[in-house]
Amino acid sequence: MDYCKKPMTREDIIAFHFWYRLATIMLVVIFALTGIKRVYLLPLIFAIIYTVIIIGLRFQVIDKVQKYPAFLSIDITISFVLLASSGGYKSPYYLYSYSSLILGACLFGYRGAFLLAGIQSILFFIAVRVNGYQLSNIVSTGENIVTDYFFFFLIGVSAAYLSELVNKLNYAIEQKNAARRNLKLARERLLESLKLHRLSAREMKVFILAFEGLTIEAISQELSISRHTVKTYLNRAYNKLGVTTKQEAIAKAMCRENS
Angle at the Cα of 240 (from 239 to 246), degrees rounded to 5? Predict the structure, then answer.
């Protein structure tokens, strides 16, 4: 059974980014409704509207960012403003701020991942300082801020790796499908050529299976005949083609077809 009929594509990975963005903004809404974290209304309304627009225009956004990577700086800036204006490392938009990094890593691979992780690490440091936090004070509260910086690079590299892996998988599947098409074309041409050599239907069937790489044992099982009968059909085919091996038979058949 072929489990790769509909493999995950790069578009699926990018779609995951938009679902991540939606999920994290909904988390902020939950924070606001439950009072777990302080969430100011106007920035939240802006973030919701911005997220809805981004998701609604996601295909245009992807095309624009791929063509002009600098456009991603708009998203990075908005995430930074939300982060800096709502508590820095305690911001309810902390997870939301990873959205730009994930998108950039998916679109531009490892180079984009490391570049954006570096930029967002610097912006995260600025957001922390803007909110009046000193690194020494943060560490004294038990918060390991080094982990926050590490996560920027870890998430970026993970998204880039997944995107690259999907690209390689899709390329391998394309190559496999191309090979199948070429094999089908060669099989059809070979079949036409064998008819010119007056092979019987059974001889052609056995020869074609051998051409496709099946062994004597596999052919006997496929056609429910003995191994001796398979060999007999192959020998008859070779005799009519005037050859002694399968490779010679294929070469001669294809040569006659080309002529």
Answer: 60
pLDDT for the residue 256: 54
Is the CATH code 3.40.50.720 the one for domain 197-258? no
Report the half-sphere exposure of 162 (CA within 13 A, side-chain side).
19
Residue 135 DSSP symbol: H
- Give the integer Cα–Cα distance in Å for 38 and 32: 7
Question: 3-class secondary structure for 140-203?
Answer: HCCCCHHHHHHHHHHHHHHHHHHHHHHHHHHHHHHHHHHHHHHHHHHHHHHHHHHHHCCCCHHH
Domain ranges of the chain: 10-170, 197-258
Reading the block at residue 42, the tokens are 């106007």
Closest by CA to 44, choosing from 91, 106, 114, 100, is: 91
**DSSP state, 69?**
G
Would you give the distance in Å from CA 126 to the centre of its chain?
34
| pLDDT, block means (10 residues), the chain with 259 residues | 47 79 92 87 92 89 89 92 85 90 88 92 86 63 67 89 83 84 77 73 84 86 90 86 76 60
